[in-house]
Design goal:
Oligomer: heterodimer
Number of helices of chain A: 0
Number of strands of chain A: 11
Order of helices and strands of chain B: EEEEEEEEEEEE
Largest interface: A-B, 26 and 22 residues
Structural class of chain A: mainly beta
Number of helices of chain B: 0
Strand content of chain A: over 45%
Distance between the termini of chain B: 41 Å
Order of helices and strands of chain A: EEEEEEEEEEE
Largest sheet of chain B: 6 strands, mixed
Radius of gyration of chain A: 13 Å
Largest sheet of chain A: 7 strands, mixed
Structural class of chain B: mainly beta
Helix content of chain A: under 10%
Chain lengths: ~110, ~110
Amino acid sequence: NAGVTQTPKFQVLKTGQSMTLQCAQDMNHEYMSWYRQDPGMGLRLIHYSVGAGITDQGEVPNGYNVSRSTTEDFPLRLLSAAPSQTSVYFCASTGRPYEQYFGPGTRLTVT
Amino acid sequence: AQKITQTQPGMFVQEKEAVTLDCTYDTSDQSYGLFWYKQPSSGEMIFLIYQGSYDEQNATEGRYSLNFQKARKSANLVISASQLGDSAMYFCAMEDNQGGKLIFGQGTELSVKP
């Protein structure tokens, strides 16, 4: 039982490049979400999914796309990276009762 | 709109003493959950404690307890017998009544002095 895994751990992109942050969980949780954490701040919700095929926007969705084709995977796509997207990205998976499991994070730098 | 406020950017505590980290929240929901997370310098988010809005007893987990005052909309974290390893950022968060989505405060940086 690996919990929530994220890849890569670190990434450097140039402005305008695209990439996908991977997130997977092996706990059969329906609910998954993506957060970003900027320096000196708490986490902010980007997108979330309540099950395969269902996604919705969080607080800061602009510049990011998600899809959920399986229960296990919830990738986050940056279509055209911008310096403002430099951040640490956390994926989370929610069980019950109200248990949130966070991945280890991906540190992204956009130059 | 839901909101979490942590008014202490940084706190110092002497080793072996107790410390209280403040958290107030705002919501119009009747059903919600409150969390505390620890984030050490290594960056991972570590779950500490959870309090449901309908729980009558304050939550406790080892050295951690949550002082839940519903009428005042506060959910303070109490750490007893502080240890050097408790030095970290601490985040208060609220989950809405639909479950899953968390709203975080800005965090409190705790430093434990030997």
